[in-house]
Amino acid sequence: MANKEDILSGLAEIVNEETGLETEEVQLDKNFTDDLDIDSISMMTIVVNAEEKFDVKIPDEEVKNLKTVQDAVDFIANAS
Amino acid sequence: MTRKAVITGLGATSPIGGDVDTMWANALAGTSGARPIEVDWVEQYSLPVTFAAQLTNKPTEVLSRVEARRMDPTTQMGLVAAREAWTHSGLNEASVEPERLAVAFGTGIGGVWTLLDSWDNLRERGPRRVLPMTVPMLMPNGAAAAISMDISARGGALTTVSACASGTEAMDTARRLIETGQADVVITGGAEAAIHPLPIAGFAAMQALSKRNDDPQAASRPYDTDRDGFVLGEGAGAIVLESEEHARARGATIYAVLAGTGVTSDAHHITAPDPEGMGASRAIRAALESGGIQMDEVVHVNAHATSTPVGDRPEYIAMKSVFAGHIDNVQVSATKSQTGHLLGASGAIEAIMTTLAVYHRKAPVTINLDNQDPDIPLNVVHGQPAELPSGDIAAMSNSFGFGGHNAVIALRSY
Description:
The structure holds two protein chains of two kinds. Chain A is mostly helical. Chain A contains four helices and no strands. By secondary structure, chain B is an alpha/beta fold. In chain B, helix 12 links the parallel strand 9 and strand 10. The longest helix of chain B has 17 residues. The chains are: A mainly alpha, B alpha/beta. Chain A: One of its GO terms (molecular function) is acyl binding. Chain A: It is found in: Cytoplasm. Chain A: Belongs to the acyl carrier protein (ACP) family.
């Protein structure tokens, strides 16, 4: 099971690849929509890439609950 | 008084140059853009044709990585050309009302790479791996939409799809938008990124492509007795079309007037041109008529001339029926000999060449014309560029597409 630090840095790389945001900007308290300006299409791409990277399933109905980077890191940590 | 549509900006990314200046210099010098396709799928699928006229500069060298990720190569190329044309025109978001700014862009196929890559992903890795951007990336209106967003064009973003006539047909749409007063500025043109194994296999299956694999640079040879098919090309061309009044008010350089356009359909055969060139000659006449141009004012034609054994002659017959004895005075350039055939972008690239020919009074060369087909006795520019007369001149560019689509533009010097 990956620790939360590794999940955060892995997630930051995925966000960077999709949006061009610097990895340092992807911090736990950031809201994907309001702070990082990630639209729903990019969010789905990030989710699918995270599933592959961390070998987890993130159901579509769960994605709307992943409001902050912390939410995503916690979900992936618990699911893996 | 009719509003005139004038050309104030040009942009291109092509197999003979990644911008207009480079492309034009190469077109005057006579440069082949054809070269072997150096990717593994050529061998993997044992394709019968192993070369194409490929871009000199990849759009990913110009666009940011994030921009490029969300666009099919067709859209990437269209955006690169449109940005150059926009910058060249000197326009900015403050100098035209967004609601008076439109886009009219053509493509023959659209996002073929995205469509087929996504299909591979679905089959090999399942539906979860079909990315959410798949549909907006594969849609044929992708380039028009991306360009409209880039420059905040809110006066309509239209797409013409008529195979190899698409780029020229887009200019017909653009001219109407300006002349009827619906828009002050239109970015028009075409984009195509179809150097993919499937279109190559399909075009080869219909015996449309040259199979001169051992000598790609000699493969595209319009009007030559040894022509054996067209060479697939890729790229995009963009033109800023503007009402004369709007262009003059801001002191813009006017390169030519898009005086007239003609669009007709053969209703004859899905791929073969009407052997008498009836649809093509009607399109040429319509372009002259709508432009108020007498046929003996035309000094230069950038011909469709793809280098197929069956296609080049009907275009000659059509031109001969319109120009009669004046045909000998018309300097004809077949620039697909250099660029290959860019399908839905070809008309856009050739409209740019025609604009520059009118502006600089030089017609670009036709390469690989070693033995001119005696059944096509046109005055073909080859060896070196032809000087065009001073004073008021007119020039035309023809495009024809599978489906029996004929589209022609007529330009006037300004």
